[in-house]
Design a protein that fits this description.
Strand content: 25-35%
Oligomer: single chain
Radius of gyration: 25 Å
Distance between the termini: 31 Å
Number of domains: 3
Strand order of the largest sheet: 32-33-35-34-36-37-38-39
CATH topology of the largest domain: Rossmann fold
Number of strands: 39
Length: about 700
């Protein structure tokens, strides 16, 4: 794909399924490059594949649809241009949507009460006089912030201790009520100096479960607990009392007593409550009366990760996505015990789950689509959407090839190589993912596709420290970053370069966050790379402690506290050895890996005359490449291709050659001049087809 093809990406969210199982609704987002904003609408599709998906709403940014238990209503969030998302309800039988909230900073995902008469959600509550709550007080004129905690800000959000999210409940309009009748305002259920999240109703509607950190010592640990409270705000109590990181509580709707709460959790964060490195998040349960967190799956082997954002319980089972060697499988886990059943495995990434009327609908991505809906019934899996078709029709998508290499100590290193069409040899880009406890995998990755379309073979792997391969795989780099993980990355590259279609003499390296860490580190150890790009990198563990939103705990757990050991793992401590041309990319409002982590590297290189550039994006945070402004995302890809066109020109990417003092003359544009090669691969699934999911799992 080309950078301008970002506008063709269609990304479906979490589906909701009608109680009768006949209809699925999902929000589909897209990048509007011309308006420089994201748009999203709700789409509806019959789960039997009898008709194509069609738009249901036409708002500016509609998201988070949820059917009411009685099937009469569809709740969702809607945001006007430059506005915040507010809760709306749409009558399923026909009629106009009605707005239920008007929160200054927006409302969160709606959660229906069992009787379909109330909706719970979370919303940030700003302090008076801040965040535009008073029209005559601009941000620069707000009162000073007095901060006395370690947790006070978050990347992508900003300061948090003056706008805590809390639980709210709003009543649905009475049946037959005229739209002109004014509704009662939402009721704030919780308050206090803590963040509340992930609300769920008990089956009888008398209590709400939610996640918060209200315990003594919450400012210095990573522990979160499940609490319950009555909808009127009384009876607040703590259900879990452990050293766990709890999230996404859910009740079994078939258990009227609501005796058990199911959740996802890191079961044990150690005695200090912050030993998070390489810890898997797994399915667990706790007694609603209070008690220990009990894993239902093996925490060593099953990691929910961040792909599926809820715990779904229905029909006597829990449904969740589990990371597995670059895939995200969909598991059905019986609540009564027994082995989990894989409903989707193989080369797919499950990103959302909905259940209704005995039908499971999953949002599933693969290397040619950012997501499609699959309807699963006993004995059959059916593809019911074709959101990826516009991008596939360009012929500018390329398939991934799975590869396993061997590290120097004999450890297997798993990853992928994606190559342009044509015989090669192609110049190579070694890319390293962030995290580090994350994974590359089976999904359409816009960056890989843009680089391959421009003529580069892209090599990427999941070295030790990554998720999806068990806790031991993730934890082995604790206080040993840049050791076995660096060996794995280079061993995988060397194995890939044995392919004659790849040019071993023309290799670049790039990565963001932890990938930026590895890029900077390796550039300080070897001159084998023609050039590099270090983006939003974790470059200096020492300064990171006082500058990052997670700095007060992250470096201590990953690189330790011994000064000599920290220096050995620090890319910045070795940056004086870098002689390779290196571009530094950073966002001006990145609070995860703060701007100084990039500018210090740039200045170090610039002072010594190393060819370098600093590319800064105003108004962006750490998530620029994934959710930044559409024009910034396109510009980022264009600048990356320009840099590689300068140091690793290809026949499809030569626009930057003229920048060099000498060399071949410039050719076609790096951004707009790439040729269209090939067509959608044979065998692409179409709406209504039965989806064949491989039965063999990669272990």
């Amino acid at each position: 794909m080309r950078p301008t093809d970002l506008s063709l990406l269609r990304v479906p969210g979490v589906p909701t399924v009608s109680p009768d199982g006949q209809t699925a609704v999902v929000a589909v987002s897209r990048l509007d490059l011309e308006a420089d904003e994201y748009r999203s609408q709700l789409w509806t599709v019959p789960t039997d594949g009898s008709a194509p998906a069609r738009p249901l709403t036409h708002g500016h940014r509609d998201s988070a649809p949820v059917f009411s238990p009685d099937g009469r209503w569809l709740a969702y969030l809607a945001a006007e241009p430059k506005g915040s998302p507010q809760l709306h309800v749409l009558p399923v039988g026909g009629g106009t949507a009605r707005k239920l909230t008007d929160h200054h900073l927006g409302a969160g995902v709606p959660v229906w009460s069992p009787d379909s008469r109330r909706i719970a959600y979370t919303a940030r509550v700003p302090e008076a006089g801040r965040y535009g709550t008073e029209d005559d007080v601009p941000p620069a004129a707000e009162a000073p912030r007095l901060i006395a905690t370690l947790k006070y800000r978050a990347d992508g959000v900003g300061f948090t201790n003056d706008r805590r999210p809390h639980v709210f409940v709003v009543d649905l309009p009475a049946e037959g009520e005229d739209d002109a009748v004014e509704l009662a305002p939402p009721f704030q259920v919780t308050d206090g100096d803590a963040d509340d999240a992930d609300v769920a109703w008990s089956p009888d509607g008398t209590e709400l479960a939610f996640v918060s950190a209200r315990h003594e010592g919450a400012d210095t640990d990573r522990v979160t607990d499940v609490y319950v409270v009555r909808p009127d705000g009384t009876g607040l109590r703590r259900v879990t009392d452990s050293r766990s990181s709890c999230a996404h509580p859910a009740y079994d709707p078939d258990d009227p007593a609501g005796s058990t709460i199911y959740l996802t959790a890191i079961p044990d964060l150690g005695p200090l409550g912050r030993d998070f490195v390489g810890r898997n998040t797994t399915l667990a349960k706790v007694s609603a009366a209070g008690g220990p967190v009990v894993p239902l799956l093996d925490p060593e082997d099953h990691d929910r990760g961040d792909e599926t954002p809820a715990t779904v319980v229905a029909g006597g089972a829990a449904f969740l996505g589990v990371q597995r060697r670059g895939a995200v499988e969909l598991l059905r886990v019986p609540l009564s015990g027994g082995a989990p059943e894989a409903l989707v495995d193989g080369p797919y990434t499950v990103r959302g789950i909905g259940v209704g009327g005995g039908v499971v609908v999953a949002t599933v991505a693969h290397d040619r689509s950012a997501g499609e809906l699959i309807a699963i019934t006993p004995g059959r899996r059916r593809l019911i959407t074709g959101f990826g078709a516009p991008l596939q029709a360009t012929g500018r998508l390329h398939r991934m090839r799975e590869v396993t290499a061997t590290a120097p100590d004999g450890y297997p290193v798993h990853g992928w190589v994606t190559t342009p069409s044509g015989p090669g040899p192609h110049p190579v880009l070694l890319t390293v993912h962030g995290g580090p406890f994350a994974q590359y995998g089976w999904t359409l990755f816009d960056e890989t596709q843009a680089y391959v379309q421009a003529g580069y073979a892209v090599v990427k792997c999941n070295p030790r420290g990554s998720s999806g391969y068990g806790q031991a795989h993730g934890r082995v780099i604790k206080e040993h970053m840049g050791e076995l993980d660096a060996d794995d990355v280079l061993a995988f590259l060397d194995h890939a370069l044995e392919d004659p279609a790849l040019d071993a003499s023309r290799v670049g390296i790039m990565g963001g966050s932890y990938g930026g860490y590895m890029t900077t580190l390796l550039l300080g150890r070897t001159d084998r790379f023609v050039a590099g790009i270090s983006e939003r990198a974790f470059n200096d563990p020492v300064s990171f402690v006082g500058s990052s939103d997670i700095g007060f705990f992250f470096p201590d757990e990953y690189v330790g506290t011994d000064p000599e050991r920290v220096a050995a793992q620090s890319p910045m401590a070795q940056a004086h050895r870098i002689t390779t041309p290196t571009m530094v990319i950073h966002s001006e409002e990145d609070w995860r890996c703060p701007l100084e982590q990039g500018t210090r590297l740039y200045v170090e290189l610039k002072r010594r005359g190393v060819p370098t550039e600093l590319l800064l994006f105003p108004g962006e945070g750490h998530e620029l490449s994934r959710s930044g402004r559409p024009k910034h995302r396109r510009a980022r890809l264009e600048h990356v291709l320009r840099w590689w066109g300068r140091w690793l020109p290809t026949s499809h990417n030569t626009s930057a050659v003229a920048e060099l003092p000498a060399g071949p003359s410039a050719g076609s544009s790096a951004v707009e001049g790439a040729a269209v090669d090939g067509a959608p691969a044979d065998g692409d699934a179409r709406r209504g087809d039965t989806l064949t999911v491989p039965a063999t799992r990669l272990r």
